Amino acid sequence: MNVCIQFEESIISAAAGDLDAGVQQSLDAHLHGCAACCARLSREQRLFAQLDAGLAHMVAGEPSLEFSSRVMAHVTGEAERQLLVAIDAGMAQTVAADPSPHFAAAVRRRIAAHPAPRAWFGLGWWGPAIGAVAVAILLAFFWPSSLVPAGDRSVTRTAARAVEPAVVQPPVSVRPAAKSASSRKRIPAPHVEQVAAETPEVIVSDEERRAVTRFYRFVQEGRIDPAQVLASNRVALALLLKELATPELGLRAEGINTLDLFPNPRTTSDHK
Amino acid sequence: MDAYAGTCPEPLVSPDTSFEAEFEQRLSDSASLAFRVALGVLRNREDAEEIAQEAFLRAYRNFSQLREREKFRGWLARISFRLALDRLRSTGRRQRREFAVLADTPAAQTVEDIAAANEFQARLERAVDELPEKLRVVVILAALQGHDTREVAALLDLPEGTVKSRLHGARKTLAEKLRPESLRGT
């Protein structure tokens, strides 16, 4: 028995459960008088029921008992991985910064604005040179003479110019040292004491020796007034003289403060 | 840990115990859903469980970005469905698929009935596999939710009318493929 073709679609929709209410009424009216359509509706309804059961069976089931614990184990590992990734990213971001394009120029400007400090009271190489010159002049005038009262000593510019070349030469032998006069105090104490015990020589550097030689040449040529040079640095001169107050050099500390720097030349018989 | 909070690309997960506790709660609430969605596609318990685990892991990675936490179940279901489809396409594990044996067959049924039922089930599953993705996910979720179209619409974040339309169309397509020849035109 064939179903009424005009109702076949309605029958299938009715079996599927999505027939409109209005169409449902007309189908119900038809089914009252059509056994074939009634039979067809029954078979379609069984088909859809079987289909729904099959679909439900397809998705029936529960995960294993260990499912949740396995998921959380993965989650914990993932959390640790995210943490490490975040740490790495944070550190990379921290050290990824580059200095500005003007950094190098700013560094150079700062270096130029703050030159290396000059030693010896800001006099640069003049400081040790003046000190060495002062020592040399004193040795030239006093060696081998001993100190005499300041009132007996006087020196004039003319007398300074009249100094014999032989007297101008440092009377003591000098031994070049690796360090300049300005760094003499940095020589380890045992080394200085050992040197003082071994020899009465005055230790000066090559630079100082050249400065002293040049100074004496300028004095001879009249280009330098030693009185003016030494007068501008009497404090440093006094400190140097105190360091040289040893019996070997014939200088006594108590006489240094009253020392007249340019006495009349003395002979060796005047040396104490 | 707080020292990196301002420099990390994404919020740290550990050691925020409240975050993990919330996720674990959602895991227990939605484990069956993720598993059964994957099972509906793969029809293999081992594969379905593996996919469900992967779905949860992906959900965990992006959990902080989910603004509306009440949509977690639907979000997870869609992830599980997508991963299951990808697994099906990439590995072609049809040969491992377990044909669902109808367990509720009456005891009085004969061997032929059982065989027929199994054959019907196999044809049904093949027909479901041939459905477009939009229809397939609706069919599977409707089967899970007992044909509650409102619940399916919430999971898929779709209007209920859209879900109804797709579900009815899918069922009719399946019925057309499964209808015995003897039933056609009669």
Model description:
The complex is a heterodimer of chains A (272) and B (186). Chain A is an all-alpha fold and 272 residues long. Chain A contains 13 helices and two strands. Chain A has a two-stranded parallel ribbon with strand order 1-2. In chain A, helix 1 crosses helix 2 (21-31) and helix 1 packs parallel to helix 3 (35-58). Chain A starts with a helix and ends in a 16-residue tail after the last helix. By secondary structure, chain B is mostly helical. The model of chain B is unreliable at 1-15 and 102-106 (pLDDT under 50). Chain B is built from seven helices and no strands. In chain B, helix 2 packs across helix 3 (72-91). Chains A and B meet through helix 1, helix 3 and helix 4 of A and helix 1, helix 2, helix 4, helix 5 and helix 7 of B.
Characteristics:
heterodimer; A: about 270 residues; mainly alpha; two-stranded parallel ribbon; 13 helices; rod-shaped; disordered C terminus; B: about 190 residues; globular
Indicate the topology.
The complex is a heterodimer of chains A (272) and B (186).
Chain A: H1 5-16, H2 21-31, H3 35-58, H4 67-95, H5 103-113, H6 126-142, H7 157-161, H8 165-168, E1 174-177, H9 189-198, E2 202-205, H10 206-220, H11 226-231, H12 234-243, H13 253-256
Parallel strand pairs in A: 1-2
Chain B: H1 17-42, H2 45-61, H3 72-91, H4 111-130, H5 133-144, H6 149-156, H7 160-178
Helix pairs in contact in B: 1-2, 1-3, 1-5, 2-3, 5-7, 6-7
State the major sheet of chain B. none
SS content category of chain A? mainly alpha
What's the mean pLDDT score of chain B?
82
Assembly status: heterodimer
- CA-CA gap between termini of chain B: 73 Å
- E-strand count of chain B: 0
Shape of chain B: globular
Q: Span from first to last CA of chain A? A: 160 Å
Query: Fraction of residues of chain A in helices?
Result: 55-70%
Q: What is the gyration radius of chain A calculated from CA atoms?
A: 57 Å
With helices defined by DSSP (H or I, 4 residues minimum), what is the helix count of chain B? 7
Radius of gyration of chain B: 20 Å
Low-confidence stretches of chain A: 146-179, 186-196, 259-272
Global shape of chain A = rod-shaped
Q: What do the pLDDT scores of chain A average to? A: 70
What share of residues are in beta strands of chain A? under 5%
Low-confidence stretches of chain B: 1-15, 102-106
